[in-house]
Design goal:
791 residues; alpha+beta; 13-stranded mixed β-sheet; five-stranded mixed β-sheet; 22 helices; globular
Length: 791
């Protein structure tokens, strides 16, 4: 036990993988079952201590499973961690006969049960049954969830291409505020106090916020069969908005769009322009330290598809809806909750809910069906933004409803269950705390940052809004509210509000330029279907364009339903927009930040697919390929390769693959072999560390005096073989070995028994001092000064 504690204190601050290190210690000590046991969550109903079955057969089975480290519960928790699912819940009850225990485990919308003589054996049986029945369905659901195209064809910029500077963006301009049609609603039930107090912390519904007690009416959410859908105004596509078309003609705009139809294009343009800059998760708690800081795969890999519909000389941008929207119930409930938040209890119950025992719907006032809009123009695109709410006279903000993490992901986890029933399997997932990886407001904010903030920030800027009022729920009840300002979103997304404004203008300029390039090639006489997807390879935007030969819109049959669209398209063509960015006249490929005095220039090359090179044509492109794991070398000077697409007919000097890995699979296999070799070296190093007795954590930045410290030459020699100046992993191993190899040279008679709690000192010629936590700095590191060492 002392050996484990010493090694953990010494190695973990620099170890690259804590889990791998703990697994190694457990394997060496023969107690793998203890170290691999899942951490009990406070949300589970299972007790911390599990009783052992009294049956001889169960004891033998459990002992073998513990020895092998393959208990069913450990395997179940590992599966949930791999697929980033909330931890499963265990519940128990006594059996009617025999006094045995029955355990039911629920997780990922599925449940199984098991029986045993004790809670421990019952939990093992339930976990084993769950894995037997549902393991394959979870893996299949994961594959369908990640069924997005990652293997896009490689394209490169020819060496003789001309790069053009992107014109400076035309500043964003608000054309008409609020609109004369309708008034902007206000929050009811005292919720406006959350905004006026300027708090960034989520406010639970059950709390008394600044003395205000929220009405219990807000707790329960009306279900779809209870709602009068005639009270929800239908969405008007930009192609059918006469006022938007009139404003576009008056201000010389070439395109018109709504926030929902332009936000997808904006997201891909931003990722391309920022070179896939990660989001800032440093302000989250330590539970999110190792969580991804990139946008979700849906944002990064799913193309944005729109239709360009000509109308009175203006091209209208309509978003293409998915054929099957499994989460439609979340969008419908969100519209109903917006009414709930802006109406008093009596008005909502009388207008928005169906009368009990009657099929007749109440008449909804027409003035409440009119929407309030802001109209603005950016880079030749007339934009429309619906206004949800206002505080005072001019503080406009958006209303957003956010279902819990489990509800939002249930449609991918349970693909075989009807969409209208899928969310009902996850209503037991509740938000119970402010911080933490699960069941917390912080988790919902983290998910919004990676999946929704990019769209939210675009919509807020178009509507000239101050922020968004978010309501957290699980489709059955509301858990709390949070007001998120646009400046706060900009800080987490872009780095600062100033960078947010810059990225918006530049990204809208990229979108506008792509649309103008397409119109110049195809004209404005026929409708077009356009898809855009930002691609990391060669830093480009992949654009697919096809003419729409048939465009039919069928009105909805039932109230509240969406119209049905049927289109037919012609042959599809592919284009590529390559981008380079220059910061203060120097090319910059990194995820950069900049200030108000810095200058950024964007250059582009817009090419047809047949004009692109199929192989690298410059040393810069070769280096990029080598970073991806495919070794390339320049072709001899007397030869040439087919560098253009086959139908182009041009030949250009390029490069060809070397005798190294032929594809990414072989390259990845080579990396796996190297990883296994590195792991074996780590194992040998830690075996030597296991033989050390007096292991003391030290500060490596300050060296001890030679008279007081004796170096372990064997361990130091292995560390020097493992270290690599260009590899942070090798440098970490070197620091580990240095910390472990330094031992204080003390006489046996001078060593004293040291308690763990009290202050500890050792008097010797080496003058070593151990002072508990007194030598620890505020970051948890250890200091050593001169001939004295403190930990």
């Amino acid at each position: 036990m002392m050996l484990k504690s010493a090694l953990r204190k010494c190695v973990l601050p620099w170890a690259a993988s804590e889990r791998r290190f703990l697994a190694f210690l457990a394997a060496q000590s023969g107690n793998q079952s203890g170290s691999n046991a899942p951490v009990e969550s406070s949300t589970r109903q299972e007790p911390a201590k599990v009783e052992v079955s009294s049956g001889q057969e169960d004891q033998t089975t459990q002992a073998e499973q513990a020895k092998q480290g393959k208990s069913s519960r450990s395997e179940l928790f590992s599966l949930f961690r791999i697929f980033r699912l909330p931890e499963p819940l265990f519940s128990y009850q006594k059996s009617g006969t025999g006094g045995s225990e029955i355990c039911e485990v629920k997780g990922a919308g599925r449940s199984s049960s098991g029986q045993g003589d004790s809670r421990g054996t019952a939990a093992e049986a339930a976990a084993a049954q769950w894995l037997k029945e549902h393991r394959s369905s979870i893996k299949t659901a994961r594959k369908s969830r990640d069924n997005l195209s990652r293997d896009t064809p490689k394209r490169y910029v020819p060496s003789d291409v001309t790069w053009n500077a992107l014109p400076k963006p035309v500043g964003f301009q608000l054309i008409e505020a609020h609109g004369p049609d309708a008034e902007v609603p206000e929050l009811a039930h005292g919720l406006s106090k959350i905004i006026s107090t300027k708090t960034e912390t989520p406010v639970p519904l059950s709390s008394k916020f600044r003395g205000a007690h929220f009405d219990s009416f807000l707790k329960k959410i009306a279900q779809p069969d209870e709602i009068n859908w005639a009270g929800i105004p239908p969405f008007i596509p930009p192609s059918q908005d006469a006022k938007l078309n009139k404003l576009a003609a008056e201000h010389g705009a070439s395109f018109q769009a709504s926030t929902s139809s332009i936000s997808g294009l904006y997201s891909h343009a931003y990722m391309l322009l920022s070179n896939w800059k990660p989001v800032d998760i440093s302000k989250f708690s330590s539970a999110f330290r190792n969580m991804p800081n990139q946008f979700t795969s849906t944002i990064r890999l799913k193309p944005a598809v729109v239709h360009l519909i000509p109308h009175n000389g203006i091209m209208c941008i309509n978003a293409e809806n998915e054929k099957e929207q499994r989460n439609k119930i979340l969008m419908d409930l969100g519209k109903a909750m917006e009414r709930m938040l802006t109406m008093d209890k009596k008005t909502f119950n009388s207008l928005m809910l169906k009368p009990l025992g009657s099929d007749e719907m109440p008449e909804f006032p027409e003035e409440l069906l009119l929407g309030a809009y802001n109209f603005s123009i950016s880079n030749g695109i007339m934009l429309r933004s619906q206004l949800d709410c206002v505080l005072g006279k001019n503080k406009i903000f958006d209303l957003k409803t956010r279902a819990t993490h489990a509800i939002r992901n249930c449609y991918n986890i349970l693909p075989d269950i009807p969409s209208e029933e899928c969310h009902l399997h996850f209503t037991d997932y509740r938000i119970t705390q402010q911080y933490g990886l699960w069941h917390s407001f912080e988790r919902e904010l983290y998910d919004m940052l990676r999946s929704a903030f990019l769209k939210y920030s675009c919509q807020l800027r178009i509507g000239a809004m101050d922020g968004a009022f978010v309501t957290y729920h699980n489709t059955q009840e509301i858990f709390g509210f949070q007001y998120i300002t646009l400046d706060y979103m900009d800080t987490l997304l872009y780095g600062s509000p100033q960078m947010g404004r810059f990225f918006f203008d530049e990204s809208m300029k990229i979108v506008s330029h792509i649309l103008h390039e397409v119109i110049q090639r195809y004209g404005q006489e026929h409708p077009l279907r356009i898809s855009m997807q930002a691609c990391k390879q060669s830093r480009r935007m992949i654009i697919h364009v096809s003419r729409i030969t048939k465009y039919e819109v069928t009105p909805p049959v039932t109230v509240g339903a969406d119209p049905t669209l049927k289109i037919e398209t012609g042959q599809q063509e592919e284009f590529h927009l390559f981008v380079k960015s220059y910061l203060n006249d120097k090319e910059n490929k990194r995820k950069w930040n900049f200030g108000s005095k810095d200058q950024l220039t964007v250059k582009y090359a817009f090419l047809k697919d047949s004009e692109c090179s199929l192989e690298p044509t410059s040393q810069e492109q070769i280096d990029e390929v080598e970073e991806e794991g495919v070794k390339m070398k320049p072709r001899p000077a007397d030869g040439a390769v087919q560098g253009k697409a086959a139908n182009n007919g041009k030949v250009t000097t390029g490069v060809q693959p070397s005798s190294g890995p032929k594809n990414f699979e072989q390259a990845s296999k080579g990396k796996e072999v190297k990883s296994q070799q590195a792991l074996e070296q780590d194992r040998k190093l830690l075996l030597n560390l296991k033989g050390l007795v007096n292991v003391q954590p030290v500060d490596l930045e300050k060296k001890a005096e030679p008279t007081n410290v004796v170096m372990n030459e064997n361990v130091e020699q292995q560390a020097s073989n493992l270290s690599d100046k260009g590899n942070s992993r090798g440098a970490a191993k070197q620091r580990i070995s240095q910390a472990a190899g330094k031992q204080t040279n003390l006489k046996e008679g001078d060593q004293q028994t040291i308690s763990q709690r009290g202050r500890r000192r050792v008097n010797s010629q080496g003058n070593a001092a151990i002072t508990g936590n007194h030598g620890r700095d505020n970051r948890g590191s250890y200091k050593m000064q001169g001939g004295q060492r403190s930990s």
